[in-house]
Design brief:
Helix content: 10-25%
Number of strands: 18
Strand content: 25-35%
Length: about 300
Amino acid sequence: MAGLNDNLNGIICVNKPPEFTSFDVIAKMRGIMRVKRLGHAGTLDPMATGVLPVFVGRATKACDILPDRDKVYRAGFKLGLVSDTQDIYGTVSEGKSAADITAEQVKDALGGFVGDIMQVPPMYSAVMINGQRLYDLARQGVVVEREPRPVTVFSLELLEYDEGTCSGSLEISCSKGTYIRTLINDVGDTLGCGGVMTSLVRTKACGFSLEDCVTLEDLQKLANYGVSAEKYLRPIDDVFGYLHAVKLNPHQERLYKNGVRLDINKMKAAFDGRKDDKYRVYGADGEFIGLAGVNYESGEFFVDKNF
């Protein structure tokens, strides 16, 4: 790729547009930003929109060590329908009538899906079974047994429900790996009428919200005027803000960057009495270096991942 910009490092939160896969977003941004090293956190289905953190340059090193932070979604649904993909983009057919179902009944059903639950991955998903993606098998008309997987739904709120159209919207806070369309499908089964997802917006991921996002259109406009997207870059350490920060003095920094394990007995003040397993590490000038681990038995402070 000619004219690469290798000086950009950080995180750009993109509001993913509909009909784009997460990989489509990465491909588009490579062209816009002229950056080769890009990665993303938290795949979104093509129909979904919302928060997609994109990691640029050295920040891509964080993609495989991101904390399992909660995700928040706003999802539309309609009762009385069933779908092979569990959303309106699949082959949809009539379920049982949902005309008599009230908002209170929907709320009662939702209550059974809060907390630690088991969820069967949908056939139209990227889950691998025997070396094959489930969606590849599903497109061939093959249905295979899937083992239920544990997920956690922290909160599940009915935002609105129209008893006339049997449709409404939900706000869901959940753990990584939760399928929202499966959740809606299962709620529909509980109500005895079926249910499909009609829309999905991820409003929060990796500690970022929609307010933190920029659109691909805005990024393209900057590129068209020859303006760098640097103003939208967030520091790499933003995603590790939950960790306590340790600042090294010049001598410690030099040793640490060379892979030398530091003696925690000589840096007790930096820990502020903490006994955490992992810390954010900054150099004497305040620049973020990376993440460190601690072995309290041996008294060693060591490199976990440097950026």
